[in-house]
Design a protein that fits this description.
Length: 140
């Protein structure tokens, strides 16, 4: 009986756990999956940030246009849009993570006959990075 007890303990010790080869195979599979998934994840994040930038630019350009039509004067700063109620607040630039980096374009030309003073006509991102389409975000 003592002999059977000794055999069952030694068999149990050899049966439990994983071998080094099995662990290495599992780690290799995980590394391959990560190598495939991480670039896709980074690409998805960049696409989402670009979509947010397009939407923010569209919203601010519409607000500039409406302000200019309503007041017959272009806004002198982006804060004018917030103070007049055309925007609740300046959006955060998704590329620079700040609302202070927007670059407004001013023009001396008037967009309508009724407009009395020139001012901001367009806005761009303050980022120096390049988008997925090959153009700089500051040119969007």
């Amino acid at each position: 009986m003592l002999k059977n007890l000794h055999i069952s303990r030694s068999n149990r010790g050899k049966m439990s756990g994983f071998t080094l080869v099995e662990l290495m195979v599992v780690m290799l599979i995980i590394a391959i999956l990560l190598a495939v998934a991480v670039p896709s994840y980074i690409s998805a994040i960049k696409s989402a940030r670009e979509a947010a930038l397009r939407q923010d630019l569209h919203t601010m350009r519409d607000a500039i246009e409406q302000y200019t039509e309503d007041k017959q004067a272009a806004p002198q700063s982006l804060d004018d849009l917030v103070q007049a109620g055309y925007l609740r607040s300046l959006p955060i630039d998704p590329m620079t993570h700040s609302s202070d980096t927007w670059v407004p374009d001013s023009s001396d030309s008037l967009s309508s006959i009724d407009q009395s003073t020139p001012g901001i006509t367009d806005v761009h991102s303050g980022s120096d990075q390049v988008g997925s389409d090959g153009t700089a975000y500051s040119e969007w």
